[in-house]
Design a protein that fits this description.
Elements: E1 2-13, E2 18-26, E3 29-34, E4 41-47, E5 52-53, E6 57-59, E7 67-68, E8 71-72, H1 77-86, E9 89-96, H2 104-114, E10 121-126, H3 135-144, E11 149-153, H4 164-176, E12 180-184
Parallel strand pairs: 1-4, 1-5, 6-9, 9-10, 11-12
Antiparallel strand pairs: 1-2, 2-3, 7-8
Amino acid sequence: MKYDLLIKNGTIVSSENIIRSDLYISAGIISRITENTGKDTFTKEIDAGGRYIFPGGIDPHVHMHLSTPAGYSSDDFRTGGIAALYGGTTTLIDFVTPRKGQDLTEAFNDRIKEAENAVTDFSFHVSPVDIHPGIELEIEKLIQQGITSFKVYTAYKETIGLDDSVLYEIMQIIAKNNALMTVHAET
């Protein structure tokens, strides 16, 4: 069989084990992990002898193209993604922070547009910043789209922070939907 790439003689580290083997890649996807039998052909071959091969890292807390009072953060999804790739990180998880009253799915779609120039895989934590009619359905829709992490703030009460009663309501909605909630806690 013909493969795009063979990475041979490496020590492969996975969540299950550490093995010395060869890695076969086709169309950017790992297709086999086994010793080279010599029966296959490759467009490119890399000898990783004496080196470790790790899965791409995940950075679960980044701020790309983040709007601040001083302007946008220094990196967007492209430039920050390039820097991440140089360090072995292949997935970034950023944030969706809507305006008070804004539909969470609308804010999510706005962030997706801002990530159009991404060079890494990415996802988002979505931040409910208030309680408004329809928010439970919005959270359910986001979960159906693959968002399973929601971040709330007890700081920044004047803009995005939640008071205790709203925090409790949001916690109930997220728990009911078996999603994950993280808290930027200040109280």
